[in-house]
């Protein structure tokens, strides 16, 4: 019952601050209109500020560091621990950064309203909880918090379709979380503990061939496969992404599935071990197959989509397939690649959805064909989209390249040639759907009158010449966010070695 | 020195001649062709026994040039007869192209004869089918359709042999003759080989191509055709079944009877001769089937003699056709006054084939008889075979008396025609001389045969014993009397159909039917697949409609009709009801339900794999 140090308090604060902060827009909304954005910005700013020292503490020393907070002062394994280590901290930082940055879009691009920002902060809290928790049951709780917040945010959009998409997500997402919970139940039966660090030693004691242990893994894996949207369990995801409000999509696309994929990595490598996956018959094949099939199926479905947001959604199915497949490769390089791609994909996809939102708001285009001639009208957004798309393909220098490169090298090390072939194929297919956009934006002239805001000037230009008025749906912040994401995606492309160093302590311990 | 001769590979010599005959002046070309064949005959007897030119063919060990007692004898007679046939063709206005095809055909036949293993044999076997078809086709007219049927028959036969050889290789691991198994591997390979070779040696039922094809091309081409395909195949039959086989023996006996019966019924001269090829092959097949030394020796001797006298007969009849332009023997008569040389040649050929003493057929046919006859060297199981062969012999007598009588004797010739020209005469007389020489100097013939020295050494060959001569005389008397009795009724008979009237339409219908069956089946499967995919697509695109359609077909007690949303049953309630109903959630339910189903499936599969 020793009192925690200031650093050890931070993991708890990272979870508690946004959850408590979620009440502020509602409470202050009783007195003031339109206070939500300010509250959210303040809270997210604080969260981001809190994340920085944690990041510094974890990555600053170059060796394995676990910042552990025992909630309520109850020691493990009885109490619930929050753990910031090399694996979780990068996700924490991603959440803090993306949630803060997305506010730059929602300020002008909507949705508006105090309730929206309450849900927004609740989502941040849930995501933080998933990232930091060191307890498998607690993980389920945060999965549900995240899910409920997400359902609400999606339904915030106008129109019945969003409600239907949210309902679908609600049902299927709950099934996924329930399967995970069943898995937790089995593992608890087998070992008698829920603490992740404890489980890592308790599961081998129960025996890798214990049917309960294996069944638990199967349920958890399928549960996460739903949450991460692996084909063919992805059906909720395209609807949800397409119909969610444009301001919410970057947040969901960049974080919700990403954090689920992170949790899957935590379960595979932290709770179960590499040895379990390697020694259990068929298990490695299952993981790799599920991932590879998603890569191919997702890409193919993306290529045939008409709606840009839906296309990007299927792209996520494919990219997360790559990450899951990389988990299954069971090599250090592939795991580093998966983590890099986890972060990189979050940044790129957030940027692309921001761009899609801007184009929809400012140019009235939602379909691939309607993107014709976009570069002539909105050069900044078109360029940002192009850069992000190219990064997504994996053309260096970009963060997309680093992730795919590490995964590809890992597949070669593992001598799983089909996976190597799938990675190569996914690059080609990604090129397929990105090239469609590029061709439309740069090389096709607009045919007919573009919808609603065809005459609006580009956001940046508009500010400079002073023609910005209330009617301009695109703000400087929105443009800046898109361009910033593009710049970041390229800039991180030079950080391959750095990523390797950051993750090395965790990865070497997992494979030791 | 003699070893060096083996570098002259006979088929290659003849094939080179076949190419040269196309470009050289006609007489020089034909001369070269004849010379190459004479060379083959000489080479066959002068090259020591052994295997030459061993090489790899299609990646397997191959011995394309085997010289032993069988192939030497075959090579000799093929070369000798070939030279005569080329001379005959030259004098019979055969074109250079025809000579080239004929020589290529002879070359492939020689290749099959000299082959030392099954792989090379199959190769030449197929080439032989192609070249002989070309030789038939070249003549045009009626021969084209017949050639087409010929090609189908030999295509099927060749494929069967190919399968047999492949299977044989799979069983014993080598292609070489006599290695791994004495003949072809027993069981299915042997069955396939018997059927495949059976096409070429005209087993009953597989023979229809023979009388169909051989009467139709140029009469000089018939001389070639009559000599090579069937005789080579009879030799190959021995290679496949060196130890004999009772079924084969009786097939031979039946062929002898069947062939002469149909020969007797013919009035096209070359058709009559063609049925006799089948009948004579019957004696060879019977000898091979019996499988004892004297039987095989007799069969091979009969093969040797048959090449000579059957070609001689085709030459003589060819001259008759050449001079009179008539194929039907009932239209002829008294020709011996007009063409005495031809009549003499025919007579020598006929005396040989009916096995009169003093002619070569008497020697070899006698050996086969003795091999089957239980009172000589046969066993009791061959008694019936012996009588079959005897009936065949009587039939042979009858039909050649008939052919000779109507063509050369029978009244006065109504037409005046010149005799054979000098070249034709020379060819015929050379072959006729050989028939007599080997009939009189029978020791020379038998010494040349496989197992010949052995059977002579054991004193098994005594053709001019009193018993044999009595037999021959009896046959002759019975036949002459018989002919006098059946001459009238025979000439009254019209066309008697052979199996071809059933087999040809059957092949046609079967082929057509198979083709239609395959294409229609494909079409049906294709249509089914397309409609399945289309419906799946439609169901995928319109899940709501699909569920409704299924729902409507379900009996009412099974489904709550209220839940199916707007259906025809509800309409009569009144128009207002239509406007009030809630939007359907069926699509949403269907899509969520599908996903949950998929989740269950995936979970089940993973659990099944892991546990």
Q: Give me the count of strands of chain A.
A: 2
Helix count, DSSP H or I runs of 4 or more residues of chain B: 26
Low-confidence stretches of chain A: 449-470
How much helix, percentage-wise, in residues of chain B? Answer: over 70%
Q: Approximately how much beta-strand content do the residues of chain B carry?
A: under 5%
Class derived from helix and strand content of chain A: mainly alpha
Shape of chain B: elongated
**Mean pLDDT metric of chain A:** 85
What is the CA–CA distance across the termini of chain A? 32 Å
Biggest sheet features of chain A: 2 strands, antiparallel
Query: For the CA atoms, what is the radius of gyration of chain A?
Result: 22 Å
C-alpha-based Rg of chain B, rounded: 34 Å
Task: Bin the helical content of chain A.
Answer: over 70%
What composes the largest sheet of chain B? 2 strands, antiparallel
Please identify the oligomeric state.
heterodimer
Order of helices and strands of chain A: HHHEEHHHHHHHHHHHHHHHHHHH
Instruction: Give the number of DSSP strands of chain B.
Output: 4
Distance between the termini of chain B: 80 Å
- What does the average pLDDT of chain B come to? 85
Q: H/E order of the elements of chain B?
A: HHHEEEEHHHHHHHHHHHHHHHHHHHHHHH
Tally of individual helices of chain A: 22
How does this structure look, described?
The complex is a heterodimer of chains A (512) and B (611). Chain A has 512 residues and is an all-alpha fold. Chain A has 22 helices and 2 strands. Chain A has helices at residues 6-21, 23-29, 36-59, 86-109, 114-132, 136-155, 160-191, 196-206, 211-227, 236-243, 249-271, 274-279, 283-303, 308-329, 332-363, 374-377, 379-393, 399-414, 417-443, 459-465, 476-491, 496-510, and strands at 67-70, 81-84. Chain A has a two-stranded antiparallel ribbon with strand order 1-2. In chain A, α7 (160-191) runs antiparallel to α9. The longest helix of chain A is centred in the middle third of the chain and has 32 residues, at 160-191. The radius of gyration of chain A is 22 Å and the shape is globular. The two termini of chain A are 32 Å apart. Residues 449-470 of chain A have low confidence and may be disordered. With 611 residues, chain B is mostly helical. Chain B has 3 domains: 1-243, no CATH class; 245-489, no CATH class; 499-565. Chain B contains 26 helices and 4 strands. The longest helix of chain B is centred in the last third of the chain and has 42 residues, at 500-541. Chain B is elongated, with a radius of gyration of 34 Å. Chain B starts with a helix and ends with a helix. Mean pLDDT of chain B is 85; it is low at 561-581. The chains are: A mainly alpha (512), B mainly alpha (611).
